[in-house]
Write a structure and sequence with these properties.
GO terms for molecular function: DNA binding; N-methyltransferase activity. It is built from 15 helices and 23 strands. By secondary structure, it is α/β, with parallel strands linked by helices. The protein folds into three domains: about 325 residues, 3-Layer(aba) Sandwich (Rossmann fold); about 90 residues, no CATH class; about 80 residues, no CATH class. Helix 4 packs parallel to helix 5 and helix 10 packs across helix 11.
Length: about 525
């Protein structure tokens, strides 16, 4: 595969590993309800995605993101040009002084690359990501998605009709669509048990209306398909006699779709239709009862089916009538719900790390209300404090109350786990430290119900222990040894220091790891 590069790539290709791990701090005043598996996070999505790792690594079924299109527009609520003060500071800190001279497409690629890498880590092996984009960065996005997800996991490039009325003052063409780029973390292959498999869309009344039963066939309604094919196959060159004794031969340049023996099998099974008079050219009967219980999705999504930006703006205004901020291209909930129907099922987690006005949260709640036992969960991340508090969470809150269900927790990015000097932050709790250590050791999620004393969990025949008190010494000594399980399993113990001899450690199958120096940075 050709190498795709840009100025600054070498500085960001592994930057996801350099992002400091920050704690999530719940804001009860902005949360809805006491406990919920739905989550809204306020803060930079790069740091937020890193903070989610110990809890959601490999657990998200569907990601939808609507990142900046990099159009150069600085007049609306999302600064869509890569020259915002925050972006300038980030580029300079990561890329270095040369970052000030980057062309805007280089900046956009530097911004997106580490975020996409973290998003991929959060996906399940059978997960999928949908990305809204327009022509400004479409080609660049395709290249970095191939780089991160692999070209073999490309699924589709969907065209969404975002407008109804043409722009008559357009210089060249009136822009009427955006794209949805779709990649699986791992595409399912025939015979494999893992990998992403898309759902079928629910059959519509319009689709079913094409089926009828004019001959009262006991198998129910059917529609007909052509028995002729538009090329010549020797096995399809034979004469057919209709029920009315009319002789039918395939026209020149065509042939019958099935060989003669198969034709007689279909005739015997009443799977051919010769018209009401019995003298028409035969057609194949295709029964509604035998088709897939759903529709295969297509790659053109029209506004009549999924809504457009005008519908999205009106709906947002109806929920938040006093909202003063404006969004240039909000997405309609109908669009996101179609994505969720294709990509998710009962209990699945949906993540939107550029959540903006909160459309994804609304779509999840509405779909849960529409489908029995759906119980999908959402994670929304929004950078701008004002948007996150006044629009994202407020919209989701009002929709949840209207639907009569759908609590959420609101969290902010807290302190880094590690201080600048490399020591552990004093504000880190035992449970937070345990979750982080267990994740970095196992790439699994801790079961807090199994935490007992210093024991924080077991994985692959190894027990994990943490001696971590915010006050006092955290020492692995003979007193602490009594708190370990009396078995032959391998034991990894994290503590500030160890006073046990090498012989004792070997006798009890203990591997000592010193805090903070041996706490792995993810």
């Amino acid at each position: 595969m050709p190498l795709f590069t840009w100025i600054g790539k070498d500085k960001v290709v592994n930057h996801d590993k350099e992002v400091p791990f920050r704690l999530l701090r719940k804001n009860k005043s902005l949360s809805l309800g006491e406990k919920s598996e739905n989550l809204i996070v306020e803060g930079d999505n790069l740091e937020a995605l890193k903070a989610l790792m110990p809890f959601y690594y490999g657990k998200v079924k569907c990601i939808y993101i609507d990142p900046p299109y990099n159009t150069g527009n600085e007049k609306w609520v999302y600064n869509d040009k890569m020259n915002s003060p925050a972006m300038k500071r980030w580029i300079k800190s990561v890329v270095g002084p040369e970052g000030e001279d980057l062309e805007r497409h280089d900046k956009w690629l530097c911004m997106m690359y580490p975020r996409l890498k973290l998003l991929r880590d959060l996906l399940r092996d059978d997960g999928v990501i949908f990305i809204s984009i327009d022509d400004n960065e479409h080609c660049n996005l395709k290249m970095i998605m191939d780089d991160i997800f692999g070209p073999e996991n490309f699924v589709a490039n969907i065209i969404w009709q975002k407008k109804f009325s043409p722009q008559n003052d357009a210089k060249y063409f009136s822009d009427m669509h955006d794209f949805l780029m779709v990649y699986a973390k791992k595409k399912n292959k025939n015979g494999e048990k893992d990998g992403w498999v898309r759902n079928l869309l629910p059959r519509t009344d319009e689709a079913n209306a094409r089926y009828a039963n004019p001959d009262n066939d006991k198998r129910g309604p059917w529609t007909s398909g052509d028995l002729l094919r538009k090329d010549v196959q020797k096995t399809g060159l034979y004469t057919i006699k209709t029920p009315s004794e009319r002789i039918c031969n395939p026209p020149v340049g065509t042939s019958w779709r099935v060989p003669e023996h198969r034709y007689f099998e279909m005739l015997k099974d009443n799977r051919l239709w010769f018209g009401k008079s019995g003298s028409g050219v035969p057609r194949i009967k295709r029964f509604l009862s035998e088709v897939q219980q759903g529709l295969v999705p297509v790659t053109i999504w029209l506004r009549d089916e999924v809504g457009d930006t005008d519908e999205a703006k009106k709906e947002l205004k109806s929920i938040l009538p006093k909202m003063k901020l404006s969004f240039e291209t909000p997405k309609p909930p109908r669009l996101i719900k179609k994505i969720l129907k294709l990509a998710t099922g009962e209990g699945d987690i949906v993540l939107d790390s550029f959540s903006g006005s909160g459309t994804t949260g609304q779509a999840v709640l509405e779909l849960n209300a529409e489908e029995k036992d759906s119980n999908r969960k959402f994670i929304l991340v929004e950078l701008e404090k004002k948007i996150a508090r006044e629009i994202t969470q407020e919209r989701v809150r009002r929709v949840a109350k209207k639907l009569g269900g759908g609590n959420f927790e609101y969290a902010e990015l807290g302190e880094p786990l590690f201080k600048a000097d490399g020591n552990i932050n004093e504000k880190v709790s035992f449970e937070e430290m345990a979750s982080y250590i267990y994740f970095t050791e196992t790439l699994s999620h801790i079961d807090k119900r199994k935490i007992k004393g210093a024991f924080i969990g077991e994985h692959s025949s190894t027990e994990y222990y943490l001696l971590f008190k915010q006050k006092g010494d955290n020492v692995l000594n003979r007193t602490a040894l009594k708190g370990l399980k009396k078995d032959e399993e391998r034991k990894v113990v994290y503590a500030d220091k160890c006073l046990l001899s090498e012989e004792i450690l070997e006798q009890y199958s203990i591997v000592f790891k010193q805090i903070p120096y041996q706490v792995r940075v993810y």
